[in-house]
């Protein structure tokens, strides 16, 4: 039985910052952002968007009534959770109107959470072939204003329906994974901003990729020539390229050219959204599928997932017949076409605007947010969500 990605969608907030202007405001050479790390724009989350609403908006465009009846497991991968107890999946389940006989959980391991969710989903489908699983990767990357990590912030979510007989991608079973207790990136419970040892994290990302790649070749018997493309978790778009370059010489010249060309295509969305943590790898996959029009069915795509702290995994998927018919290319293009650029001053004000830390009630102006699902405020320490379509 084939199991894999039946549908995939994403959502990013309606406002963004131009990275050249951010660099100039920080007295940094713009090329360090646009070329050095490979970022052009950075999505900014208004106070009316959090990890729950981003995930729900990403899922809203891809689910239909049949999905609402068949989804019996919602897995919410995030490191931007809004509650230490209640999962974001429960909120999303209600906001989407899914049938009640379902499991709903939140999974956390830095940027690896959505990948863990996919593997859990595969096991569930293997036991329950008629079921569907909604896997969400939703995050808001925050390092703080005027910090070394500011240029690798972002906000957004990817939603995937995992099922038997998938229409987009069959996920193969040659997975190789690795865990090591390291402190390259972390966010203590008391902090709303992450801490990162940037140089160490980059080194560990590449080390993890090299280790799982070598193990994958041994386990699967496959090599670079068997890959049409490799998609990476992208905290910034140059990161995956650094990893790819460490193994690219293993391949013949025509394969090297193909992998490098497809890598660049896979980074187009990430370059203009920024880092979305758990969703970054799958935004890279989506960018490749939607922007490379001649990507043929039946080809194999490699995927490297990395979550600091750290867990890494390499796995592969095979594109299914007529997969492009099941993509939402036009609606995703609308997300980019209708976004509004904000000034650096506006961005800084939005960044500093937070919900009351003492639990006080607040009512937010949701009219300025065009999203279908928004956070409207807090009452009695409870976040209030609104689906404008309901």
UniProtKB/TrEMBL annotation:
An annotated GO BP: acetyl-CoA metabolic process
Does Transferase appear among the keywords?
Answer: yes
Q: Which InterPro entries match?
A: HMG_CoA_synt_C_dom (IPR013746), HMG_CoA_synth_N (IPR013528), HMG_CoA_synthase_prok (IPR011554), Thiolase-like (IPR016039)
Q: Which Gene3D superfamilies match?
A: 3.40.47.10
Enzyme Commission (EC) number? 2.3.3.10
Keyword set includes Transferase: yes
Q: Which UniProt keywords apply?
A: Acyltransferase, Transferase
Please state every residue range assigned to the domain named Hydroxymethylglutaryl-coenzyme A synthase C-terminal.
263-352
One example of the protein's molecular function in GO is: hydroxymethylglutaryl-CoA synthase activity
| Signal sequence annotation | none
Annotated residues for binding of (3S)-3-hydroxy-3-methylglutaryl-CoA: 143, 242, 275
Which sites are catalytic? 79, 111, 233
Hydroxymethylglutaryl-coenzyme A synthase N-terminal domain: residues covered: 2-165
Q: Which domain of life is it from?
A: Bacteria
Pfam families given in the database record: HMG_CoA_synt_C (PF08540), HMG_CoA_synt_N (PF01154)
NCBIfam families per record: HMG-CoA-S_prok
The family classification in the record reads: Belongs to the thiolase-like superfamily. HMG-CoA synthase family.
Protein name per the record = Hydroxymethylglutaryl-CoA synthase
Recorded source organism is Ornithinibacillus hominis
């Amino acid at each position: 039985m084939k199991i894999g990605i039946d549908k995939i969608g994403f959502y990013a907030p309606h406002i963004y910052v131009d990275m050249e202007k951010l660099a100039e405001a920080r007295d940094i050479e713009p090329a360090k952002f646009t070329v050095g790390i490979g970022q052009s724009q950075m999505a900014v989350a208004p106070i009316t968007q959090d990890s729950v609403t981003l995930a729900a908006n990403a899922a809203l465009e891809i689910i239909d009534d049949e999905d609402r009846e068949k989804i019996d497991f919602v897995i919410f991968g995030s490191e931007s959770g809004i509650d230490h107890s209640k999962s974001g999946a429960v909120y999303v389940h209600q906001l989407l109107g899914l049938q009640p006989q379902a499991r709903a959980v939140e999974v956390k391991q830095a940027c690896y959470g959505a990948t863990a969710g996919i593997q859990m989903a595969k096991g569930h489908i293997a036991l329950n072939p008629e079921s569907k699983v909604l896997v969400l990767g939703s995050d808001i990357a925050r390092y703080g204003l005027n910090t070394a990590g500011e240029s690798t912030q972002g906000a957004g979510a990817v939603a995937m329906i995992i099922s038997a007989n998938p229409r987009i991608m069959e996920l193969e079973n040659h997975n190789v994974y690795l865990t090591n207790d390291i402190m390259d990136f972390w966010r203590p419970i008391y902090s709303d901003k992450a801490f990162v040892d940037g140089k160490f994290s980059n080194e560990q990302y590449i080390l993890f990729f090299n280790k799982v790649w070598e193990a994958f070749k041994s386990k699967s018997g496959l090599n670079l020539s068997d890959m049409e493309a490799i998609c990476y978790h992208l905290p910034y778009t140059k990161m995956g390229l650094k990893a790819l370059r460490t193994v690219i010489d293993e391949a013949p010249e025509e394969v090297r050219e193909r992998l490098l060309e497809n890598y660049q295509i896979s980074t187009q969305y990430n370059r203009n959204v920024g880092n979305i943590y758990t969703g970054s790898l799958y935004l890279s996959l989506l960018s490749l599928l939607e922007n490379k029009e001649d990507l043929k069915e039946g080809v194999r795509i490699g995927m490297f997932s990395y979550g600091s702290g750290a867990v890494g995994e390499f796995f592969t998927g095979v594109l299914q017949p007529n997969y492009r018919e099941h993509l939402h290319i036009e609606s995703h293009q609308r997300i980019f076409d209708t976004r509004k650029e904000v000034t650096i001053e506006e961005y800084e004000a939005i960044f500093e605007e937070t919900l009351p830390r003492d639990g006080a009630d607040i009512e937010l102006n949701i009219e300025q947010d065009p999203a279908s699902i928004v956070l409207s405020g807090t009452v009695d320490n409870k976040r209030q969500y609104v689906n404008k379509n309901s």
